[in-house]
Design a protein that fits this description.
The chain is about 80% helix and about 0% strand. By secondary structure, the protein is mainly alpha-helical. It folds into 2 domains: about 90 residues, RNA polymerase sigma factor, region 2, helix turn helix motif (Rna Polymerase Sigma Factor, Chain: A), CATH 1.10.1740.10; about 80 residues, Winged helix-like DNA-binding domain superfamily/Winged helix DNA-binding domain (Arc Repressor Mutant, subunit A). Helix 3 packs across helix 4, helix 5 packs across helix 8 and helix 6 crosses helix 8.
Length: about 190
Amino acid sequence: MNPGNSIYKMVKGLINSDKKSFDELYFYYYPRLYAFSKAFLKVEDDINDILQEVFIKTWDNRKKIKDLETFNAWIFTVTKNAVITYFRKKIQQQDFENRVKKMVIGEFFYDNSLEYKDMKEKVDVIVDQLPEKRRIIFKLSREEGLSNSDIAKKLEISIKTVEDHMMYSIRYLRSKLKDLEILTILYISLFL
């Protein structure tokens, strides 16, 4: 880095805990790191969270930055590592959710199919008590697996209307089932 270079001055200011230099580095690097992260991630909220962590780490480690020449490589490496950590967490979270579902389904539902059948019948009775439009929307979502947008198109209503009906349906089901056994609670948590 050339000492006359503005990035050199910003990094030097960062090392000396100059908040203005940090802000300047943020505005200089944010779009570059965003484009770099977007090559791996598609969800913008996740990218913003990752970059927030990168800049917190940059500020926290400012006194450890020794080589101004390699700052650019350092900040991109920090970003790459944050992306990798993000993927690891997502994989662990998904693995955990899958294990819980398998355990619950395996131990509670399939091993005890009579209880599962009984619980499903109770849920079906309550679903049948929903107002007609709400019941149709609920069944299209939960039994046919349609998205809110697909249901809205199919029924020629707004997505907001679909979301409202689903919210009230789930709230109604939970209120009717709240006094039932743990299996029902697990069923509601995982599948409703």
